[in-house]
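notes to self, project folder thing:

trying the whole complex as one job this time. last attempt i did each chain seperately and stitching them together was a nightmare. two parts in total, labels are on each line so i dont mix them up again. if this works i'll redo the older ones the same way
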Amino acid sequence: MAEAHQESSGSGDFDLSQFYQIFFEEAGENLDLMEQMLLNMDLETADDEELNGIFRCAHSVKGGAATFGFTDVAELTHQMESLLDKLRRHELQPNAMMVDVLLESADISRSLLARHQAGEAGEPPSSADLVRRISELASGATPAVSTPVPAPASAPVAAPAPAVVVAAAETPTVKGERQLEIRMGPLERLDQVDPVKDLFRDIAGLGEIVDLPSDQPNFRVFKVGTSSSNEDLLDLFAFHVAREHVVIRDLGEEADSTPASVTWADDPPPDAPLAPAPGFGFFDGAPGAPGAAKTVASAAAAEPRGTAKAGGKAAAAPLAQPEAATIRVAINKVDQLINLVGELVITQAMLAQNSRALDPAMNQQLLAGLADLDRNTRDLQESVMSIRMIPMSIVFSRFPRMLRDLASKLGKKVDFVTQGEATELDKGLVEKITDPLTHLVRNSCDHGIEMPEDRLAKGKPETGTITLSAAHQGGSIVIEVRDDGRGLNREKILSKARERGLDVSDQMSDADVWQLIFAPGFSTADVVTDVSGRGVGMDVVKKNIAALNGTVEIDSAEGYGMRVSVRLPLTLAIMDGMSVGVGDEVYILPLSSVVESFQVKPDAVSTVGQGSQLVKVRDEYMPVIELEKVFQVPRFDSEKSSDIMVVVEAEGSRVALLVDELLGQQQVVVKNLETNYRKVPNVSGATILGDGKVALILDTSALVRRSRH
Amino acid sequence: MPLILAVDDSPSMRKMVSFTLTGAGYQVVEAVDGQDAFEKAQAQLFDLVLTDQNMPRLDGLGLTRKLREHPQYKTKPILMLTTESSDLMKQAGRAAGATGWLVKPFDPARLLDVIQKVIK
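result (full assembly):
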């Protein structure tokens, strides 16, 4: 197949390879869309629009693949297209088996394309079996061959010369093997039909082909032993030689040669000047056809005004240029842009800080310019950051297919619901969250959702539901996987934990018990299936999410289902921060987590057992954290003390941070402390302030968790 | 310089057709489906319309029919560029008023060859 593709790309002076990339992307999109539509399709009520849409996807991929010389993809998608064509014409009724085969074919097409994209590296995945299965499905019920489809067949009636001659009604599908003589020609190049021989080699069960001597120089003759119908053979050959140029003769019959193709009485003969090459043609007498000058002239005479007007309009009309809706850019260029904007933000912050000392009256223009710079920098930064953001639907869209396959493998019935697909997340995070989410969804299907009969016995609907949702909450994104399955069994987890020698007690809270399933090698699955439950699971999920600075929480009610919430920081490279002073140090709080701040009277803080402090705010007590103590800030001015509370919220709880002063609000560029130094507790990163000093960015979630202990 | 309207819902096919034709000295305007093409064809007059058959909103046959109703396009060449090489399709193309057909896959040389035959 590789040779064929090089050959076609090398034909003429054109290098088609420059269009490969755009084709690969387009084909990928088409296959994704097709998969989505197949999954959404209701087999009983599939309407024309849906079927046409699915057909169009396969059709587009086939057209491109054939044009760009990816014959293996073209052949497979051609089979898909044939099946889909019969579906959209209602010659066949869609069934689950067809959907399965089409989905599988889409997968194989993807891998074939990926292989071409990688420069033909590695063994091509075998599509021969699929090709056979699809064509069986497509031909398995083709009674429609003898009854022409009404709609398109009625078109010729209106045509000027309706003369359809079907030579030799379609050869019926023969069960046993037949010996055929196949003549192909006239051919431009004799080796043009060599790929036909490859077909017989590649497609299992198609039969055998051998060369026979040809009586004419531009013809090839083959002897073929096959059980496929003539129609199927012609479909297969159609990529390499026009149907009109194939004649199939059954050697078993003594009958005369049977031209299997449909011929038009008024079609010009192949060697007529109007249609010298196969693959195109003009309609006799059609407007604009070469040699139809008379018709053109008379038609033009009938519409003299129209033509004249048209000429004038063409000269005056502006040339509309095709516009591109998207461009694709290498990710490192985007990251470089983000880094540069980060530097710009720092410079801008420095200018803003230095300008505070200036006299507003004397430097009015300069200050106005700086204010503009501030606004423009912020806009620029927002636009640049949004380049990297992609919607969660990119991740979510892979699950319907996965769940469908999984559920059918397990014999379960599962509905999949997604919420908040438009929620945007940084591309880097999206890539890293996909695997953990996949694991969670698999777990829900495998361990959570019960078998249909068990569900019915429990009085639940037969079909289980798995919900995947994403939402922004403050500075984080929360992704939840919910199912209405059996939930976690507290006793089972506890006994399993004891078996494994973990330190547990019956008095543990539910939340703590659920956290046990994150222990390495912990699996409560009764049966270790090949889907999940191999013991490498939740601990890896937790580790991966922790690596993204995220947290995982579990909520479960036995018999009713469970919910796993993954909370991720929106790790933006630039964020809005509130700078607070403690002693001589400056700390940054993510503005999104700041709720309020107030000056506190000494008597509002009460100390409870073990030295922890609480502050009463509007009849509500909340824990107080003294940053001075947390970070052991040296204090030289003993007169001064912290008397400002900043209330921050994270993970659904609030704490009051005790600081000396509020310094202001500013954008800060987040620098990773871990890669530049090491992980510091309660700190999520660092930044460089306008005056060049380094300030730590506080991890409010960690501070909230700290207050719970 | 002859002006050609290339209609295809597949960006790669559009690019390839447009690249081939531009390289041969034609001016090309692209349209993403029949509806888009019909709107563009009304805004300016093309010397040739090269259209795919299977497209959303308005297919190639529909576009051909609509264009033929338009006085300015009564006699303009309209080529159907399509993977549907079936004869029913050709018959439908004729009925709709197409000038001729060109079966995909084609190579650029053949495309130019066919176009030179219809553009004088």
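what i see at first glance: The longest strand of chain A covers residues 464-473.
need to look closer tmrw
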